Request: fold
Amino acid sequence: MDSSASTPQLLRRTNLRTVLDVLRSVPSVTGSDLIEATGLTRATVIAVCDDLIARGWARERESARTGGQKGRPARRFEFNENAGHVLGLDVGLATVRVLVADLAGTVVGQTEVRFPRHGGTPDERRAAVLAAADAALADAGIPASSVLCAAMGIAAQVTGQGAIAPGQELAPMFDLGLTAEFGQTGGWPVLVENDAKLAALAERWRGAGVNESDLAVILAGERLGTGVIESGRLIHGARGRAGDMGGLELVDGVGNQDGIAKLARLWGSAALEAGHNGRIRELVGPGTNRASARYVFEAAAAGDAVAAEILDRIARRMARVLALVSTFFDPRLIVLGGAVAASATALLPVMTEELARYVPNPPRLAVSGLGEMLVPTGAVRLALDYVEAHMLELTPRPAP
Reply:
């Protein structure tokens, strides 16, 4: 390629990208603001803004005339967050959750659909995901044609290239051909990522880890999984297994990947089977020994000694997991997320005390406040990252 011929085009794209980055970071700016922020000349700034407006990525904002002002008010420019939308999906074992967001990350629609009992067949699961996406778009009131990208979190390890890593027990539950399905029906790029890694993106974007460049997020509901961000970058590893907790059977005092919700349920049920007749039994009722995690946490809060002992055991066990993550990745912050995040606040004092025994200068601990939308929020962030990186190659798709 003739470098002299490509230089003007490359410079133009660089200027477009530079101005776009500024527009996305502020509500609106004048040409003078852009000159100061970018170092470009006034003629270049105005030409670039007019180009972005023509492409559909920016718009000119009405400028109010101030008292005593002579002449035309300064032109103001802003990013067009309605130039398209993204989808963020959380495809779990029992449920699929979907968020629809504009290009500023504002959620405009959402839905939740449960899979058939025991997860369903691959065809049933695929149909449920597609139906959930359609329902979320209907809730947002936008057509599928306005979607620029979809990102999907799954409870399996994913390579850095977006493929499900081989050799995983649960892989068949998520290898549903959804990338091809969405690509054919909606014409969307579809990104696939591990759910814990998306949880890490979500916490750094809109959760407890805002402005933190080194953090780990542990999904601690049924099974433990970790997403790690180091120096602002999501870590995958050679095969996408960074943060996989599959080696916990080797850790004394842990033994497997069971999460907080599962342990509370198992140990609470075992207490009932052994004849416990305290607050857990009152909540569960007669005729069954199956205790939910919620009942165990509620019983402990009400002063049930057996429930409190179960939570103490869980907290001390989790402290060993936290120590492992701290030793390997050295984050400043570890966030607990997943199905029991809200209740896990009760575990923080013991976990914090125990962690200090294992790790010098231990990281700060927090629980996620993003609830059930933790993973789909991370999926929205991943989809937005794709759109922002490829904006000049994409065509805006505003909703009618």
